[in-house]
Amino acid sequence: MTVCAGRLAYRPGRAGVSLIWGLTCDVEGAAGSSVVAAIRYELSMTTSELDYDARTNVCAVIALLTALLGFFLPGLVFGVIGMIQCGRRGEDGWGMAFAGALISAIVFLILLLWLGVVIAST
Asked: Membrane spanning segments where (predicted)?
């Protein structure tokens, strides 16, 4: 006679979760001997693997907002800082930081060109 018992366990922890599946079978042989076979499979995931909501970099948001409001110097500074932080930390928002830095740089160049034209015309 063969007796099998299966078990599925879910174990949450501070660093992530573990899903454990186990199966134990007791097989009785022809001579009355008993053989126990066990299978265990464990699937573990860390918190970073389960984190689907990546954070958006705050400097990237500030860079885009200040650039759109016309403050080119803070937009440029926060944009560069945001791009560096997104690369190092793996956060979302690199595109926003790039857009903020690009808009700020374009506004700065237009301002310099306008200033040069005004000074040259006087």
From this structure: 60-84, 96-120
Q: Length of the chain in residues, anyone?
A: 122
pLDDT bin (cut points 50, 70, 90) of residue 96 is very high
Q: How far out from the chain centre does Cα 82 lie?
A: 15
Coil, strand or helix at 27: strand
Which residues have C-beta within 8 Å of that of residue 66, sequence separation ≥ 6? 74, 75, 78, 100, 104
| 84, 97 contact by CB (below 8 A) | no
Answer whether 0.85 is exceeded by the pTM: no
Return the structure tokens found at 26. Answer: 């007791």
| CB contact set of 74 (below 8 Å; sequence gap of 6+) | 62, 63, 66, 104
pLDDT per position as a tens digit, 12-68: 665 555 556 666 666 565 555 555 556 665 555 555 554 555 689 999 999 999 999
Mean pLDDT confidence for 69-73: 91
Q: How many CB atoms lie within 10 A of CB 24?
A: 14
